[in-house]
Amino acid sequence: MDNTWWWLLGLVALLFGGMLLSAWRARQQLQTRLLMSWGQLPGRTRQDSEASLQEAYAAQRQLHPRGSTIDDLTWHDLNLMQVFQRVNLTESSVGAEALYAQMRGFYFGQPATDEKLIAFFAQNQPARMAVRTAFAHLGKVDHNQSQQYLLNADHHVLPGSWQFRVLGLLPLVGVALIFVVPLAGVLLMIASLLFNLVYYQLRRNALELELNAMRYLVQTIAAAHQLSGINTPRQAALKAAYAPLKQITRHAFVFRTHTGTELEVVMDYLGICFMLPFIAYNSVLQTLTAQRQAALTLWQELGQLEVAIAIANFRQASPVACQPTFTADAVEAQGLVHPLLKKPVANDLDWRQTALITGSNASGKSTYVKSVAINCVLAQTINTATASSFALAPGHVVTAMAVQDDITAGDSYFIAEIKAIQRVLKLAAQGQRVYGFIDEILKGTNTIERIAASASVVQWLSRTKARVMVATHDSELTEILKALVINWHFQETVTASGVTFDYQLHQGPATSHNAIALLSTMAYPQPIIQTAHDLVAAFEQTRTWPQVEQSK
């Protein structure tokens, strides 16, 4: 063997060694990332866009309807997408979509969590790492359409499947013909290959969404094969769901995950030359249609693996967390905190009737209301609360807090506000238990009608199974409704250097105000501040507003 061959062999060995080293480094980096991320609250990622998650959730709601759902207004009022991101320690879109769906709905008194599986992953690092590694290799693809395919697989079949098979066979016919009529065989092989390349590209442009969706779907089933070999409490169920779909994995070669290697490009062109993606596409859909229930079960099993890991991590990484208990009435908590705050102030809760919360601006009213509402959601969806202890009776959770006018619907702020509150009234009118959370009730109208209407709403709700928590600046409501509600407040301390807050919940209505004091800290002209104080003093003495005269 001359030197040229040795050089070629050396080059091949060097390239092969480089590929192996690169793969080893990638595996090591993945393992390090997975190890370092455990016990930490995850943040926002480039994947898992809310539009993609909502798309999958819309399909999943049809597959798995829940007793109660968190509507869009409540979801956005409570910044629950940010809460989801704090929980979302998932490595695949299958897991992220399952977690999102779980946090958007629940069964009353029965959180859809597998506590045995959660405890297993919390305590078993090798199994947890093996499962997370398998899902990491699957990865995340936004708008992957998997849920839609599971819902209506037969609606996505490509027409003319026999044409793809004929076109895929023509190059092979040309090869066979070479041995009989060489020139005709060569011409047929070259012509069919070129035609298939061009035809595939033309069809692929129109079917790119379907082919990308199929790639992720097939790779998910291939990942299920690997995951079914890991010893977990759900292993038997996973194997049973995977078995009827096993034949789909033979198409994993055609629909493999793209990594951009040279070998992959060569294999892609070989598949295109024989129309393998189109042929395999319909074959997979036929299996999914015939084994639809097994596919639905498989996706649910896969999703629950990652959901369990995410919940286990959230409980461990959160400064305080507990599993709630479900009672016949009331909401009680000790050491309750808001899950999104870096340095939250803990408060207790004993909520047995409609509550009015008064207090100064920035004193913590809205944050406290949101912390209670968020934990009512988390307790019923992922069986977790950010508190030392938490107990509640099962019920819907509805908010009217960050209301905005809707120009497209022609709704003013006040119309949008009364529509938001009406969601609570409708559920209460049906005799259902609903936890309503309202911030600055009916602030979009004049003072007299706001107080009258607000009092009427609270009075009506007090006769139902609704539990409502209202944050308000209208101190008049605390007196009007004192026989029907419990009054709580947050307070402040005003000093020469400014205003400070303790962010602690206190019993009774607020007795102090800080709006004018805040004007002073912001260096407003002294005449403005003095006039404001004089007007308040006059009103509190006579309960009527004096006429303001022209300043001298």
Can you offer a commentary on this structure?
With 552 residues, the protein is of the alpha/beta class. Helix content is 55%, strand content 10%. It is built from 20 helices and 14 strands. It has helices at 3-37, 50-63, 72-77, 80-87, 93-103, 115-123, 125-138, 146-151, 161-178, 182-227, 235-242, 262-273, 276-290, 292-317, 365-381, 413-429, 447-461, 476-480, 515-521, 526-542; strands at 68-69, 105-106, 325-326, 331-336, 347-351, 355-359, 389-392, 396-400, 434-439, 467-471, 486-490, 492-495, 498-501, 506-507. The strands form four sheets. It has a six-stranded mixed β-sheet with strand order 8-9-10-6-11-14, with helices on both faces. A four-stranded mixed β-sheet has the order 3-7-4-5, covered by helices on one side. A two-stranded antiparallel sheet has the order 1-2. Strand 8 (396-400), helix 16 and strand 9 (434-439) form a beta-alpha-beta unit. Helix 10 (182-227) packs antiparallel against helix 11 (235-242), helix 11 (235-242) packs antiparallel against helix 14 and helix 19 (515-521) packs antiparallel against helix 20. The longest helix is centred in the middle third of the chain and has 46 residues, at 182-227. The radius of gyration is 31 Å and the shape is elongated. The protein starts with a helix and ends in a 10-residue tail after the last helix.
> Roughly what percent helix?
55-70%
Compute the gyration radius: what is it? 31 Å
Largest sheet: 6 strands, mixed
Strand order of the largest sheet: 8-9-10-6-11-14
- Which stretches of 5+ consecutive residues score pLDDT under 50? none
Percentage of β-strand residues: 5-15%
The outline comes out as elongated
Structural class based on helices, strands and sheet pairing: alpha/beta
Number of strands: 14
Number of helices: 20
The rounded distance between the terminal residues' Cα atoms is: 110 Å
Q: Give the mean pLDDT.
A: 84
